[in-house]
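ok new one. same drill as before - structure tokens go in, u give me an amino acid for every spot. 439 of them this time. try not to just spam alanines like last time pls lmao
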């Protein structure tokens, strides 16, 4: 899972935990707040009534009903006020939940009871508020709170996701540069634009690391190229001297045979050095890719060169060209070597008694064109397939020095061609070359 999604989900989870805790404690707090608010309102109303009594007197409010007192309910029976005479020893000042009968209906009220003395007479003042109205207010507050919490969670999740995407954008750019880099020398060293110090430091560190790797690779390639180049001259001199010894005819048969074996060893050593030189030059980008030629023509040329070898083994090469691609940004001689090595391998590993022809199919798939080379040999064991393109990791063969496919892979990488291997056990081997569309 990407970092930005982890951050967003973490923020969402913490908010949901907070919301759950809030929902658990909210009823208790709402009830307490409502009760305190209601009690304060009842006390304020009591003070207002006491103020009216002080202004107009008890008689003024009761209007001749001193014996019975007064009682007043609003039209919805949500609030009431009552003033009546009380026993002289009564001294009340408390708030309770009590039931009152109104028009044959029993209603629960939050009631303030307050007694006071005027002119030696004790009066009881009751001010009540219906619990239904309190609960209604509580429900309204709860519903509004839930809606606000839901909106808060949704909006914060979207905001967190957006923020995480913006914050981790430099990390995506850095990983994109790494993924698209085929060689340390081609690494895009343009600094990633970011205000996040950590990402800027990571980008700088990777640039420095790529530079070190590139320097090491360059030195290794230079050493390989220099050693290979310097070895060629003495080997050529030695080969020439040995050939002269044989051509003079002065050697005995046994000595001539040993000299011939030495020449074969020198020839093989020269082939290895030339192959290593080629790999080093390709990896050092010493070749130019500006040839313009049709791919079908190059394939035909390679096949014509290999066909005599295949015919000697009684092996047919079947071709099917469903592409008419012209390459304009390629090196023709290198691609010839690439195709030659792979097709030659297909011929070589089809077995002494070939089970089928070597098939070469050129076709277009999507935006790319591909070349598939398939033989009907014994296939490649999985333990060999993983290292097949490594240098000196050759397949079981009496000849060859294990550099043919390494050269092919180096040339393919140089041109951006992807080589895919498909070799089910006992069903032959297929190499698919996936050419880039802009080659």
């Amino acid at each position: 899972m990407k970092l930005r999604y982890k951050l967003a989900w973490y923020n969402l989870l913490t908010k949901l935990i907070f919301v759950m805790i809030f929902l658990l404690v909210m009823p208790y707090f709402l009830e307490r707040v409502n009760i305190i608010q209601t009690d304060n309102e009842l006390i304020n109303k009591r003070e207002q009534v006491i103020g009216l009594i002080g202004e107009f007197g008890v008689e003024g409010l009761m209007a001749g009903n001193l014996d019975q007192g007064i009682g007043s309910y609003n039209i919805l029976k949500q609030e009431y006020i009552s003033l009546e005479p009380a026993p002289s020893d009564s001294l009340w000042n408390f708030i309770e939940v009590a039931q009152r009968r109104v028009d044959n209906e029993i209603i629960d009220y939050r009631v303030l009871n307050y007694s006071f003395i005027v002119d030696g007479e004790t009066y009881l003042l009751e001010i009540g508020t219906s619990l239904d109205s309190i609960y209604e207010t509580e429900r309204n507050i709860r519903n509004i709170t839930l809606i606000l919490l839901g909106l808060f969670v949704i909006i914060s999740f979207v905001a967190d996701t957006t923020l995480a995407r913006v914050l981790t954008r430099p990390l995506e750019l850095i990983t994109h540069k790494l993924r698209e880099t085929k060689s340390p020398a081609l690494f895009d060293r343009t600094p990633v634009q970011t205000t996040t110090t950590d990402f800027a430091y990571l980008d700088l560190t990777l640039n420095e690391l790529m530079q070190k790797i590139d320097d090491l690779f360059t030195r290794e390639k230079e050493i390989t190229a220099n050693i290979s180049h310097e070895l060629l001259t003495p080997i050529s001199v030695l080969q020439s001297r040995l050939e002269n010894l044989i051509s003079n005819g002065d050697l005995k048969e046994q000595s001539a045979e040993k000299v011939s074996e030495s020449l074969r060893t020198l020839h093989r050593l020269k082939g290895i050095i030339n192959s290593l030189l080629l790999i080093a030059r390709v990896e050092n980008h010493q070749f130019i890719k500006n040839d313009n030629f049709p791919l079908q023509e190059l394939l035909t040329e390679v096949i014509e060169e290999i066909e005599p070898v295949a015919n000697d083994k009684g092996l047919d090469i079947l071709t099917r060209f469903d592409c008419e691609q012209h390459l304009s940004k390629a090196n023709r001689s290198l691609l010839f070597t690439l195709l030659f090595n792979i097709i030659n391998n297909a011929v070589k590993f089809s077995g002494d008694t070939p089970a089928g022809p070597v098939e070469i199919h050129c076709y277009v798939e999507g935006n790319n064109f591909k070349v598939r080379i398939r033989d009907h040999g014994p296939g490649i064991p999985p333990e060999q397939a993983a290292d097949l393109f490594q240098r000196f990791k050759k397949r079981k063969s009496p000849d060859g020095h294990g550099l043919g496919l390494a050269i092919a892979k180096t040339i393919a990488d140089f041109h951006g061609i992807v080589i895919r291997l498909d070799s089910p056990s006992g069903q032959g081997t297929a190499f698919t070359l996936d050419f880039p569309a802009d080659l």
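DSSP finds eight helices and twelve strands in the chain. and btw The mean pLDDT is 82.
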